[in-house]
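Re: that backbone. Tokens:
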């Protein structure tokens, strides 16, 4: 009984904390929004795919509000196989500006609004020292990302999955 009560108190505190910091995001019909798509690196560690920062495509027009937190957006014909109603968390507001040059190639986006990241080249190497062994690591530059977004990966996994990066 005491444990259950303390869990409820902890849950209530966490909810209050989250509610105070949550931004209320609302859009109107005709607003422009970007749509979030999720990259995956294709490498699998412990059964989970690694991830990089999400990307946004668009802008698209809001057609209508569907319920409290969902919006229907106008998608181009090449994304006709994707359902056009999205939760507000998948959208980012865009304020139109004539000086912005926006373009993207939607051909790499799959039906579930994700895309496969491909490594472009190896930027650096290092060895990570553990207690009983050392693990060779490589810093990988990923397609569609800047050098600041490069990630450290196990050299053996990268060599097995993407041998062309090592000149093999």
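Recovered sequence:
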């Amino acid at each position: 009984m005491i444990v259950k009560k303390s869990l409820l108190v902890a849950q209530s505190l966490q909810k209050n904390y989250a509610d105070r910091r949550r931004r209320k995001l609302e859009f109107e019909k005709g607003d422009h929004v970007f749509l979030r798509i999720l990259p995956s690196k294709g490498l699998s560690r412990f059964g989970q795919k690694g991830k990089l920062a999400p990307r946004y495509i668009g802008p698209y027009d809001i057609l209508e509000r569907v319920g409290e937190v969902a919006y229907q957006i106008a998608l181009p014909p090449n994304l006709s196989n994707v359902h056009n109603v999205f939760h507000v968390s998948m959208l980012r507001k865009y304020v139109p500006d004539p000086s912005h040059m926006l373009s993207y190639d939607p051909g790499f986006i799959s039906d579930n609004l994700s895309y496969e990241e491909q490594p472009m080249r190896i930027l650096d190497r290092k060895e990570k020292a553990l207690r009983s062994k050392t693990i060779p690591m490589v810093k990988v530059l990923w397609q569609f990302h800047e050098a600041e977004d490069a990630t450290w990966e196990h050299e053996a996994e990268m060599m097995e999955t993407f041998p062309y990066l090592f000149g093999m």
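Residues 31-111 form one domain. Residues 2-21 form the longest helix (20 residues).
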